[in-house]
Amino acid sequence: MLSAVERGEKAPSVLILDQIATGLGTSMARLLASEREGRIVVIRAAEQDRAVDPSGWERRILSPVLPKVEFEFMRTTLFPGVNAGAFLPHNPGSREYVAVERGTLRLTLDGKVYLLKKGDSIYYAGDCIHEFENPDRRNRCEYYLAMDVTGHPEHLRHRPAAAAKYKSGRKSRATE
């Protein structure tokens, strides 16, 4: 399949593009766009790369591809009842953040389901199988996804002593 894509004989689905990127240890954005340099990079709406999947969903890449940076910020639209499929784990130490802007998202992480609604957000380690689905049969789901697929485990260590310095009067969900 990869050689057919390289020769331009086949147009890969978004899921296949992601599998190719994951296999190469990079982001889908890096496969679609050239690197840009500069302290400020503006990407107009008409210039943003879009990956449209025939099954009924679209991913718009909002972040530039920068040298030595494996970060991707995107906006995804899942049409009613669409399951985008299962995405392979990224490098150990990779991170993903999701924020739902509209509708309902069923996010499955290594078999565990999280139902997220408008305004909800979630963080998870990207080195798991993750699946995105719109369970609503009438309305679309739109969400933002930010991911760092670099995989630097040493950057993921939590420092409880530093966190204690900034403790507020509010309880976090983790301590309730």
Write the layout of secondary structure elements.
Layout: H1 2-6, H2 14-23, H3 28-32, E1 50-53, E2 57-61, E3 71-78, E4 83-87, E5 95-102, E6 104-109, E7 112-117, E8 121-125, E9 130-133, E10 141-148, H4 160-165
Antiparallel strand pairs: 1-2, 2-3, 3-10, 4-9, 5-8, 5-10, 6-7, 6-9
Briefly say what this structure is.
This protein is an alpha+beta fold and 176 residues long. It contains four helices and ten strands; from the N terminus they run H-H-H-E-E-E-E-E-E-E-E-E-E-H. 21% of the residues are buried.
Question: Describe it for me?
Answer:
The protein is an alpha+beta fold and 176 residues long. It has a single domain, classed as Jelly Rolls (Sandwich), CATH 2.60.120.10. The chain is 15% helix and 34% strand. It contains four helices and ten strands; from the N terminus they run αααββββββββββα. The chain has helices at 2-6, 14-23, 28-32, 160-165; strands spanning 50-53, 57-61, 71-78, 83-87, 95-102, 104-109, 112-117, 121-125, 130-133, 141-148. The protein has a six-stranded antiparallel beta sheet with strand order 1-2-3-10-5-8, with no helix packed on it. A four-stranded antiparallel beta sheet has the order 4-9-6-7. It is globular, with a radius of gyration of 17 Å.
